Structure formats: structure tokens, C-alpha cells
Amino acid sequence: MDTHDETARVAAVPTAYRRAAVIGGGVIGTSWAGLFLAHGMDVVLSDPRPGVRDQVLTGLDEIAPALAELGLPTENLTARLRFEADPATAVADADVVQENGPERLPVKQRIWQAVEQAAPAHALLATSTSGIPATAIAEAMRQPERLVVGHPFNPPHLVPLVEIVPGERTSARTLEQAHAFYTALGKKPQILRKEVPGFVANRLQSALFRECVHLVAEGVVTEAELDEIVTDSIGLRWAAAGPFRTFHLGGGPGGLPHFIEHLGRAMEASWPGLGAPSFDEATVALLTEQAEQAFGDVPVRELAARRDRAQIALMRALTETSSTSSSTPSDTSSRTHTQATQA
Questions:
Q1: CA 174 to CA 126: how far, in whole Å?
Q2: pTM
């Protein structure tokens, strides 16, 4: 697929989702806004903080190269962007509201009270919260069935995952809307079957990071060494096959049951020995010192750009590998045989 064809494919957003209101102009809000704009949507960004306009425009300039690498059009990216401090005014004509306010329940409840009253009845209402349940946020709403968590993995313009998490009263129609919308953006949404604090990706990330902090605090490795261990082993492995598929493969012909039978008990026995660190003063000082030694000589903006380039290259390679493996000669001959026997 050439770049023109890819752009045409990923830029197609249904007309039902042409106008977006983005509440909050921080890192996540700016990233969502850039992705929406690159897909040809009209975007109103609402954030009352002084100087937010310049901050957002700078942020959009920074992520534009990554959007272009994804095959999205970035020329005149901000032509369809406008700013509105009042959230009620910002959402008045929205087809989609993506809220990215502070991770404080009272603040989110106030935002959604105002949004619900002002947004059109057909609008998809989604919060980017990274851990607060939709049920709690929607307690202040008259129609809690309209609210759903649409939690991206940072940065939203780049990483495919969006966790769609219903509250206790979120309607099936809202879930369908959310799944259709994020899919149209080229994302890979996952609807969670239960509402749990922190959802799934962040719980996994937190569990791994806890052990990372423990190992560094105990002097087993440095931060830089640990990062290399992860990127040279499980990082690569999990990019190609998640934890369950990885251990299914580790079980050989017997698959996951064989792996659990032979190695599962030993793994389980090691769980109580995993670390339980805390961010006390000494630990924070150590982590800060090592971060400065490992990364401090490179501006964060440049580190982020390097990460984005590497992430895009990895995503592209995995996509190409998947496309190739699905069209191998054996697969092709098998399909031909099946078609012949069915004919």
C-alpha cells in the first residue's frame, strides 16, 4: 500500500463524527486534538488556563512529524482548530467530546455536569481518565448511560490502544459508538468486560514498574541497565506476542497448559518474593539521580521524538510481518484447496 492509499484509508472518519470538542489542553488533550485534526475533523479545544493556546500549538508542531509518518495529512493542521475557554460553549455542536481534565474526581464531575447539559443528544461522551471509574464520574450526571471511558495509551496520536471501559450504567449504544469512532481513527479499541480501577494497561505497567523500582533501589541494576534488559528481552517479545501467547509458545506443542504444569509452580513460588518498594525520600533521590545520569543530557523533546520514531518503525515492521505471514505460499495454496473443495 503506498502512502497515498494509506492516507486515504486511515483518514476516513464517518460524517457522524466530524466535530470534536477536546476538554483539556495538556499532553493527552493536545495529542487527541492532533489526531482528530489529521483525520479532517473540526476541533474545539477548551481549557481555561492562561497561555494554553501557545502551549497547544507548540505541542501540535512537535507531534506533526509522527502524524505524517503514520501517513496522515499534516499540512495546515490547525486550520480546523479553534479555542474556547468555556466547556459548555465548546461542546454545543460536538459529535464527540473527549475530556482530558485533571485526575481528580470532583473536577471531572463538575466538567461532565456542564458538558452533559450543553452537548447535543447524539454526541459521544468519553473521558480519557487513566484510572477513575466512569461510574464514579457519572454520579453527577442525569444520563450516566452516555458516559464511557476512552482511555488512550500515551501518546494517543501514536499508540494504537484505546481502553473502552463502561460504567455500571453505560449503555450498549454508547459502547458501540465509542468502538466505531476509535476504530475509524485507526486505533485498536478494547472493550473491558469489568470496570476495575486503573483498567488493564496501567495496572500491568504499574505492576512491572513496582518491581523495576525495587530492583534499582536494592542496587541490583541501574535504571539504564534495567531499561536495556527490558527493551532487549520482554519488550521485544511482548511487542510480537503478548504474555499469554508468549508462555503458550514456551510450552511447546503442549502450549500454555504444559508451560503452567512444568514452570508455573516455580513462577508462583517467586511471587511473594517480589519487591514492595515505596517512593520514600531516599528512593526518590536515587531514582532522580540515576535518571539525570542516564537521560539528563538529552532534552525531553528529543527523547520523545526518538521514542516516536522507534515506535513507528516497530509498528510498521510488525504490520509488514503480519501482512507477509498472512499471505505465505502455504496459506495461499491452502485457501485455493479449500475454495476448490467447496466449489
A1: 9
A2: 0.86
